[in-house]
Amino acid sequence: MIDYLNSHFWLVWTLITVLALILEVSTGTFYLMCFAIGAACAIIASPLCIPFWMQVVVFIVFSTLSIFAVRPFVLRYLHSHEDGRLSNADALIGREGLLIEPITEQSAGYVRVDGDEWKAVSADGSDIEKGAMVRVVGRESIIVTVERIN
């Protein structure tokens, strides 16, 4: 068994490569992808009758190079469009909604935007009656600032 393993160690490196890629799918950090690249380079080195310790060195060197060269490139490429994307409550700004409770100078009203109800105040301090269509122009904590759509 040991003799077979010594002469076919590329199978072990292949198993490491496949396992690293499978685990990478569940993490998304792209570190395990770098280990898969290192193991793939060790697969190439294995049939060249290089001693096992040298295969491990190839694995370590190419994994390290991948972490510093390949991973930043992949992260930049895959996450290039996330900088300008709003999420959570900030995504409400610019959306339109229906006022379900009127806004007066003395009290805030409620607006329904995409099925969610938010406490709302008028941007210019004016009264807005129930049933008016409004646009969200700002947000402070859980209170949105709206303006009437003409």
UniProtKB/TrEMBL annotation:
Keywords from the UniProt entry: Hydrolase, Membrane, Protease, Transmembrane, Transmembrane helix
GO MF annotations, alphabetized: peptidase activity
Major subcellular location class: membrane
UniProt key word Membrane: yes
Subcellular location: Membrane
Any GO CC annotation of this UniProt entry: plasma membrane
UniProt cross-references to InterPro entries, sorted A to Z: Membrane_assoc_protease, NA-bd_OB-fold, NfeD-like_C
Domain NfeD-like C-terminal: residue ranges: 89-148
Keyword Ribosomal protein: no
GO terms under biological process: proteolysis
Protein's membrane topology: Multi-pass membrane protein
Residues passing through the membrane, by range: 6-23, 30-53
Protein name: Membrane protein implicated in regulation of membrane protease activity
